[in-house]
Amino acid sequence: MTTLYLASASPRRRELLAQIGVPFVTRVQPIDETPLPAEAPAAYVERLALAKAQAVFATLEDRHDAVVLGSDTAVVLDGRILGKPVDREDALATLAALSGREHQVLTAVALVNDIRAEARVVASTVRFKTLDRTQIEAYWATGEPRDKAGSYGIQGLAAVFVSQMQGSYSAVVGLPLCETAELLAQFAIPCWQQAASA
Ligand SMILES: Cc1cn([C@H]2C[C@H](O)[C@@H](COP(=O)(O)OP(=O)(O)OP(=O)(O)O)O2)c(=O)[nH]c1=O
């Protein structure tokens, strides 16, 4: 019996994976999230998703019956990776930069077991309406931007900033569920559909 491990401290990722009916155990290992010099954003999120999964896989005692899922999300504006805010000023500057513009959200999902590692990167486009300084400061004061790539969460109060979105909503929140289900199937882990017909 294979055990699926979610290599993530993110409550969003736990909720998203639970949403598609897959039983899993959460384990977290810290990794270095510094981008490499001139690393392309898609390569960066893919490398981190794999690194998160591999770091947890390395700690497991029974690696034969284990699959580990890692994921990483980055907000990209004009080719620049905007990660989680380091402080208030950083978040205010990020939200001002996103105001009235379109940006990309890249999320990678990776699965690792004792014989292989596979990853998928999903790109979505999000457009923000124009925000003024008062709205940005009020949003920071809610606490929501603190632990999120690009200093916002589409699933929360920042939904009112999003005038358009193309791509995968679940990927923007933190885990692309359609692609995750496809990868899980490749590793013989059923989500609700196969489980229901088994
Ligand atoms: C853009 C966006 C990001 N986010 C979150 C998802 C991720 O939790 C976070 C991006 O940071 P990540 O470094 O991808 O993930 P994490 O540190 O929160 O969790 P872990 O590495 O342990 O898996 O931003 C939202 O919740 N909503 C959004 O709309």
Automatic annotation (TrEMBL):
<keyword id="KW-0546">Nucleotide metabolism</keyword>
<comment type="function">
    <text>Nucleoside triphosphate pyrophosphatase that hydrolyzes dTTP and UTP. May have a dual role in cell division arrest and in preventing the incorporation of modified nucleotides into cellular nucleic acids.</text>
</comment>
<feature type="active site" description="Proton acceptor">
    <location>
        <position position="72"/>
    </location>
</feature>
<dbReference type="GO" id="GO:0047429">
    <property type="term" value="F:nucleoside triphosphate diphosphatase activity"/>
</dbReference>
<feature type="site" description="Important for substrate specificity">
    <location>
        <position position="73"/>
    </location>
</feature>
<dbReference type="Pfam" id="PF02545">
    <property type="entry name" value="Maf"/>
</dbReference>
<dbReference type="GO" id="GO:0009117">
    <property type="term" value="P:nucleotide metabolic process"/>
</dbReference>
<dbReference type="InterPro" id="IPR029001">
    <property type="entry name" value="ITPase-like_fam"/>
</dbReference>
<keyword id="KW-0378">Hydrolase</keyword>
<comment type="similarity">
    <text>Belongs to the Maf family. YhdE subfamily.</text>
</comment>
<feature type="site" description="Important for substrate specificity">
    <location>
        <position position="12"/>
    </location>
</feature>
<dbReference type="InterPro" id="IPR003697">
    <property type="entry name" value="Maf-like"/>
</dbReference>
<feature type="site" description="Important for substrate specificity">
    <location>
        <position position="155"/>
    </location>
</feature>
<dbReference type="GO" id="GO:0005737">
    <property type="term" value="C:cytoplasm"/>
</dbReference>
<keyword id="KW-0963">Cytoplasm</keyword>
<protein>
    <recommendedName>
        <fullName>dTTP/UTP pyrophosphatase</fullName>
        <ecNumber>3.6.1.9</ecNumber>
    </recommendedName>
</protein>
